Amino acid sequence: MTSTFPNISISTERLVLRPLDEDDVPALAAMMNDEQVGAWTDVPQPFTEDRARSWITDHAPAERVAGRGLDLAVAEFLTQRLVGVVRLARTDWHVRSTEMSYIVAPWARGEGYASEAALATAQWLLGDQKFERIELRTAADNTASQQVAQKIGCISEGVLRGACIAHVRADDGTWSDVRTDYIVWSLLPEDLDGAGEQLADSGGFTAFPDWN
Question: Which DSSP string corresponds to 41-92?
């Protein structure tokens, strides 16, 4: 069994999930500087274009080659505008399990893009890649992320008390840490039954072994 994710392009009705590209640098940097991204993730603030370029050219390829995870750009199918990012991390190839997270640009929120991208990724992982478990962790107060988990069929497994560090920005622009809980969700192959039938019928995935 493989221990490295392939370079992949996953298509849905509205989106394409693909490897990050250097052309994504400006949009990625802008997205990561958003207030909500700063609050709910450990993305360094401010997030410069140099950081974005390093993520795209160094960090993301190294994580994939090492088998630890996979970072996918999420773009609108028609415009190719960067909508967000889906990330896989803490991958266990023996257990066939990985942790999934997602970030959506401020302008694209409320359109269902996070659910569409997360479900397409899950269908690929649990189907083509034969994974047996996807785990998600959402901060206790991050209701938007919790709604995505519910929409794609995840089951809430419990709470990791005090396991999450969220961030609050003061009026002077500085950030401070606030400890909160993680809600743990899981998605198994049987949880996908009947979920997102429109995605299964409208797209698919294509491997690009020589991408990059």
Answer: S---SS--HHHHHHIIIIIHHHHHHTTS-EEEEEEETTT--EEEEEEEEEEE
d(CA 16, CA 9): 7
- Say whether pLDDT at 175 is over 70: yes
Supply the pLDDT for residue 66.
Answer: 94
12 pLDDT above the threshold of 90: yes
Render pLDDT for 54-92 as a digit per residue (tens, 0 to 9): 999 999 999 999 999 999 999 999 999 999 999 999 999
Task: Check if the beta carbon of residue 74 is closer than 8 Å to that of residue 31.
Answer: no
Query: In angstroms, rounded to a whole number, what is the distance separating the alpha carbons of residues 59 and 56?
Result: 6
Which tokens hold the place of 130?
């034969």
SS3 track for 123-188:
HHHHCCCCCCEEEEEEECCCHHHHHHHHHCCCEEEEEEEEEEEEEEECCCCCEEEEEEEEEEEEEC
Q: CA of 120: how far to CAs of 1, 78, 143, 146, 201, in Å?
A: 22, 17, 21, 17, 11
Indicate the DSSP class of residue 1: -
Instruction: Report d(CA 8, CA 56) in Å as an integer.
Output: 15
pTM for the whole structure: 0.88
Amino acid at 42: D
